[in-house]
Amino acid sequence: MPVLRFKPSRLYELTGLDLERLRELLFRLKCEVEEAEGYVNVEINADRPDMFIGEGLARAVKGLLGVETGWAKPKLVDSGLTLKVERVPTRPYIVGAVVYNVNIDSNDYLEELIQFQEKLHEGLGRKRRKAAIGIHDLEKLPSKTLIYTMKNIEETFKPLNYDKPLKIREVLENDEKGKLYGSISLLDNEHPAIVSGGEIITIPPVLNSDITRLEVGTKHLFIDVTGTDLKTISLVLNVLVSGLLERRNAELGLVRVESPWNGLYPKFEPRVFKVKPESINEILGTEFGLEELASIIARMRHNVKLEGDSLTVEVPPYRVDVSRIVDLAEDAAICYGYEDLGPRSSWRVMRGGLHYITELSRRIRTIMIGLGFTEVKLLSLTSPHTVKLLGLEAVSVEVLNPVQVEYSVLRPFMAVSLLQTLKGNLHNPKPIKIFEIGPVVYKRNDNVVDEEVLGLAIMDEEVGYEEIQAPTYSLLRILDFKFKVNPAKLPFLVEGRAAEVIVDSERVGYIGEVQPEILEKLGLEYPVALAEISLSKLSNATSKVHS
Prior knowledge:
Layout: E1 3-6, H1 8-15, H2 19-28, E2 32-36, E3 39-43, H3 54-65, E4 76-85, E5 93-100, H4 107-122, E6 131-137, E7 145-152, E8 156-157, E9 166-167, H5 168-174, H6 176-181, E10 190-196, E11 199-203, E12 207-208, E13 221-227, H7 230-244, E14 251-258, E15 263-265, E16 271-275, H8 277-284, H9 290-299, E17 303-307, E18 310-315, H10 325-336, H11 356-370, E19 374-375, E20 381-382, H12 384-389, E21 397-398, E22 409-410, H13 414-423, E23 432-444, E24 447-459, H14 465-478, E25 484-487, E26 493-503, E27 506-514, H15 516-522, E28 528-534, H16 535-546
Parallel strand pairs: 4-7, 4-14, 19-23
Antiparallel strand pairs: 1-3, 2-3, 5-13, 5-14, 6-13, 7-10, 8-9, 10-11, 11-12, 14-15, 16-18, 17-18, 20-22, 21-22, 23-24, 24-28, 25-26, 26-27, 27-28
Helix pairs in contact: 1-3, 8-10, 9-10
């Protein structure tokens, strides 16, 4: 869990509590507290990034004490800033906000603000890959129009804490943060940048310019968040802004983003739930009444309205951890106190059991071994080259940021893995008869489908449709499935020597001979026959019989 450090004087100023009382309350909020070298180290649960700054931590503690309840939607003003977004392929999304009257009045607060930024980078930002934050002195912006674009790495700007301009390339190669994060968004000697008045003010996700540096005395802030996912960067912006808005007299300024996701940011809107006391009581084993539950939830800083026999709960936009009723139940337990819930004996007896597909897989393994096949177990990730040779590119699912290029696609058919295995066993005695049970992943329309399948293959000096048909039919008959076959066309099977297997009017698999041209391109010197049966579809087909 993230560990944050705070000056004791700051925490006392924000909460009015001595360390022992604060330790007790923070423990209820799933935090551990230790003193070390003049600081208070607080280990905060990763699902509560809103508490990564003293003001957010104090907000939660005051709610627990009932000193303050609910949350107030901030007054929104137009900042007059416009953020124009050009094509930035490596991290295409950006949002922004202005927070007035933050007033960085001490080095302690400045240190805490930078710590807040870095902890958000590590957690929600996934070490800046998914989201990265830039915080700037608003009054130092060269212009109210900002442009998010790609810049050639030979262009210059004055990096933060440097006394002279450097080329972007020099920063990426020599600066500590450049070495850590410089490769994340670099593409063909171009790097993302935000430009204001012709000046580069940041190269996300690496480093800001010295032009807009923060210092003691900075009053108003401009914040940018860039990344690869619009929802994530919007959440990060909300969490950061919420901590700054706890400062006295702080106001939120909207930034106009001109982009395909046009609009004013931040979208500081709550998530709304309709909650009945029974649903919380069932989870916790409590007997909370409507008004008691409303009071408890409000102390966790949610807004609550009583409407008939239900509560309408507005979850603050900074509470990224609350997405379901069970999360509100956890908040109620924290506020009420786990120690006060009391033990409850369970009246429900449940016995574990194997999933039907697991039972089916075990039976199939026994049968296939009895039919003379050897089981293999391969990775779901496979070679895009083999997928392309089999004509399966259109239905394949590619993995982002693969560790190895040769393992960058999820196999859409078991045939891909089986043929690769046969290629590695060309010199073993024939016939080679193998099978595998495992997942395949493929695209169908606009959806991604994940299925558990059985694949079997035979390679021999001479092998055809009949040799793979016999064990496939035997397996289905032993398992007591009624099936039929129809002619089929698959891009890697010989036309006229391939069939689809039908069970309960649904296509559950195929049987066929692999095209000689494909075998030649794969380096396979012997004919191969394949079959594939979807256990997921068999499970659905037999659920009426075996349920």
